[in-house]
Design goal:
Blueprint: H1 2-15, E1 33-34, E2 45-48, E3 52-53, E4 70-71, E5 74-75, H2 79-90, E6 93-96, H3 104-108, H4 112-116, E7 125-136, E8 145-158, E9 161-175, H5 182-202, E10 216-223, H6 227-240, E11 251-254, E12 259-266, E13 269-282, E14 285-293, H7 303-317
Parallel strand pairs: 2-6, 2-7, 3-7
Antiparallel strand pairs: 1-9, 4-5, 7-8, 8-9, 10-14, 11-12, 12-13, 13-14
């Protein structure tokens, strides 16, 4: 019975978008990067490269090409199957592509030489997904949290070359309270966290299929200080209350992209929502940009965003 419940619960988490009010005007999420002239309607079909392991620390064994543990009737999908399923759910046709060899730096700042080596198959679009971090805090016979950071990169084929058209990151957090052996729980939580991260990433693509699209809230906060200074304050604030901002594994910081991801838990959304924060330079000043999964009862960002920005303004004013 435990396995049946967990299997059904995992399916619901993986493939159900956040519920939002019918009256709520849908807001497009803001990705970390999107080429100025790129539009999702330009995509015909997408060639999907096998998922990449971009973890800095590969001490812990984890396979993106193997299925997760078996739960009665089926196994948890591989990252590649989850990616194809997420695109299908959004209404995009896909095909398989040859594997891509790349580091995280090559993907987010690709050279012309490297992009000319990409194999797009019969498509003009190539998507590469990479896992930057994955872990679980399960204890013996007690489930914990599976946590993963997933990056996605969309490349467009051009005459004699290619270009990076879109890229972003997402958190995948799987929380459950069932029991089992520590090894089985960790393995299952790791795979589910990666797959949830993939779904969250692809939910930011414009939806073409019927059904409810994922809902988002977008907001901005302007600071008169340079982004390097704002970034240091943001890091300190998020780290000062790790319990509030999703726990130690719930906060992800990338100084190169000036990007923070963290998961907040509320009574109205016990599964948690992802806060996606990016700093943007503008004439020596800094704009902090929030993209947040929409919650049923909210007409705007949750209180954690308001609390965070107020405290940052207070700290910068000292």
């Amino acid at each position: 019975m435990r396995k049946v419940i967990l299997s059904l619960f995992a399916i619901l988490i993986l493939w159900s978008p956040p519920i939002h009010s019918k009256e709520k005007e849908l807001v497009e999420p803001v990705p970390l990067f999107m080429a100025p002239d790129f539009e999702f309607k330009q995509i015909d079909s997408i060639c999907l490269a096998p998922a990449l392991d971009l973890r800095l620390d590969k001490t812990a064994a984890f396979s993106l090409s193997e299925s997760g543990p078996r739960f009665n009737f089926s196994r948890i999908a591989t990252a590649d199957r989850a990616l194809a399923g997420a695109f299908k759910g959004q209404g995009y046709g896909t095909s398989g592509c040859a594997s891509v060899s790349a580091t995280l730096e090559e993907l987010r700042s690709p050279s012309d030489t490297w992009m000319r080596s990409l194999n797009f198959g019969k498509s003009n679009w190539l998507f590469v997904v990479g896992v930057e971090s994955v872990n679980s805090d399960a204890a013996w016979r007690l489930g914990g949290n599976g946590y993963a950071v997933v990056s996605g990169f969309l490349f467009e084929k051009q005459a004699g070359s290619a270009r990076l058209a879109w890229r972003d990151r997402a958190l995948g957090v799987f929380h459950q309270g069932v029991t089992g052996s520590k090894q089985a729980l960790e393995n299952g939580e790791d795979h589910l966290a990666v797959n949830i991260g993939i779904w969250r990433l692809i939910s930011k693509f414009e939806r073409r299929s019927r059904g409810r699209p994922a809902g988002f809230v977008v907001d901005y906060e302007n600071f008169d200080s340079p982004c390097d200074q704002v970034w240091n304050v943001l890091k300190d604030e998020l780290r000062s209350d790790l319990k509030k901002y999703g726990g130690v594994r719930g906060v992800f910081l990338d100084e190169t992209d000036k990007m923070a991801l963290y998961t907040m838990y509320h009574i109205t959304n016990p599964g948690g929502h992802e806060d996606h924060v990016v700093l943007r330079n503008h004439d020596g000043k800094c704009a902090m940009e929030l993209t947040q999964e929409y919650e049923t009862v909210n007409d705007g960002p949750t209180h954690d965003w308001n609390d965070l920005t107020k405290q940052m303004h207070a700290t910068l004013a000292k």
